[in-house]
Design a protein that fits this description.
Length: 215
């Protein structure tokens, strides 16, 4: 497993970064990105701490820990500038909290995240076909998620992505210990979204592609 969307106690997760990464390693993860929720209030506090802890863990463990960020519930007009700021601070992976159907995310968030060129648009909900095509053109990956609630629109996202040729990744959006999943569970999530085993393999390859850009 490669999981590029998780949360620690630095936002609304329940685990220290070190425990989160260790537990992921034990169940067979190759890499895990810690992408805590951020806006202008905490962006410059979280990222340096994640950079430090990931550097420390990577010097001792086999699983790769990646410092990232998830820009969350922002006015869409702010997404571009905060994406640039997050990258300048050293976030290696930038996600935007997409227009999930179970939270009041502002309309236009999906489009502005794609326009900003984030790495992954998380749980994009009932994303429009036009924005899926835009994501393909911009090289933004769309997320299939195992997270309760957010996963309700997985089938919609998968169908439009396959139609448009947009790239998918599968993540857990882990907040709690029980959110981490095995490869077998991840396969079932993909299957439930109408995807085939070979599509699951491609999603893993897409995650590797994102990591390969980090050096």
């Amino acid at each position: 497993m490669i999981d590029l969307h998780t949360h620690s106690i630095f936002s609304d997760g329940e685990l220290l970064p070190s425990e989160l990464v260790r537990r992921a390693e034990v169940i067979g993860y190759q890499a895990v990105a810690i992408t805590d929720h951020a806006d202008t209030s905490n962006l410059d506090w979280i990222i340096p701490r994640l950079i430090q802890v990931c550097r420390d863990l990577n010097s001792h463990w086999q699983v790769r820990a990646i410092p990232g960020i998830e820009l969350t519930h922002l006015p869409p007009a702010m997404i571009g500038s905060l994406t640039s700021r997050a990258r300048a601070l050293g976030a290696q992976i930038v996600l935007v909290h997409g227009e999930t159907i179970v939270e009041p995310v502002l309309p236009g968030t999906n489009h502005q995240a794609i326009e900003a060129g984030v790495d992954i648009l998380a749980h994009p909900g009932l994303i429009s076909e036009e924005d899926v095509i835009f994501a393909r053109e911009k090289g933004v990956f769309l997320e299939i998620t195992s997270r309760q609630g957010h996963s309700l629109s997985n089938g919609h996202v998968a169908r439009l992505a396959q139609k448009a040729g947009a790239q998918l990744v599968l993540n857990t959006d882990t907040h709690f210990l029980e959110d981490l999943i095995s490869r077998e569970k991840a396969l079932k999530v993909a299957w439930g979204a109408g995807l085939r085993p070979e599509d699951f393999d491609q999603m893993l390859e897409n995650s590797r592609k994102i990591i390969s850009r980090l050096g």
